[in-house]
Specification:
Number of strands: 0
Number of helices: 14
Order of helices and strands: HHHHHHHHHHHHHH
Shape: globular
Radius of gyration: 18 Å
Strand content: under 5%
Length: about 240
């Protein structure tokens, strides 16, 4: 399928009700309002297509950009591609979902995460912390300990979050809180450190706009995963 054909199909699949929900979550026009389940059907038809993903993303359409993330070839994505996706995202929501997930699965995840968490721009910093959250959720602990993002570095980042989270922009606070949760849930040896960090941080206040979304309490969330006995169980993919 061509980009024109796919965009036409997305327009037919869109609904006003889903469009309203997406707009409440930050989506900007153009947005058709396609359900994720329908995007997943298209993903299965297309499978993986590097160039088509780039072309779909360049439309600026919210739904097309989400689909682009699903079909992107993480092994072919370059740093230039990923930085461009961040700068051209339809909205900050895509920065912390589509861009962060594909970046985490690429060979440049650690490098770009570090670059972005140091940025002053809210969208970049949010994407960086969410990329880190995704990395610890999909990389084996042994693999993490052999990379730049080793356990010592993760402990330092937990300390950084503890000391600075309440001074950060809105969605950076949300992403940092998510990093504490991911580290506690996915890295066996750092669960206690993440819990201590979460206790020091306390309540994280984030304006979630006109949505019913809430900021998860890190301590409660990690404890629930402990009770399920699934601490350290990794995800197969960062994309969803």
């Amino acid at each position: 399928m061509t980009v024109t054909e796919i965009v036409a199909q997305l327009e037919k699949l869109g609904t006003d009700s889903t469009r309203r929900i997406l707009m409440n979550h930050g989506a900007r026009d153009p947005v058709f309002g396609v359900k994720i389940a329908d995007l997943k059907i298209l993903q299965k038809q297309i499978k993986t297509d590097y160039q088509l993903a780039l072309d779909l993303y360049d439309t600026g359409n919210y739904d097309a950009q989400y689909l682009a993330g699903l079909i992107a070839d993480e092994n072919r994505m370059t740093k230039t591609d990923l930085r461009r996706w961040l700068s051209k995202a339809n909205c900050i929501t895509h920065c912390g979902t589509v861009v962060a997930a594909v970046t985490a699965e690429s060979r440049y995840g650690i490098e770009l995460a570090r670059e972005w968490i140091a940025a002053r721009q809210e969208a970049k910093a949010q994407t960086g912390w969410t990329t880190l959250s995704n990395l610890v959720s999909i990389k084996d602990d042994a693999e993490l300990d052999l990379t730049e993002l080793d356990l010592t570095e993760l402990k330092r980042l937990l300390k950084q979050v503890t000391q600075t989270i309440h001074e950060q922009p809105n969605m950076v606070r949300y992403a940092m809180n998510g990093f504490v949760i991911s580290t506690g849930c996915y890295v066996n040896s750092l669960t206690d450190a993440a819990l201590r960090a979460a206790e020091k941080i306390g309540t994280v206040s984030v304006d979630m706009g006109q949505t019913a979304c809430k900021v998860p309490a890190a301590v409660d969330y990690i404890h629930k995963v402990q009770q399920r006995g699934t601490i350290g169980k990794k995800r197969k993919t960062a994309r969803c």
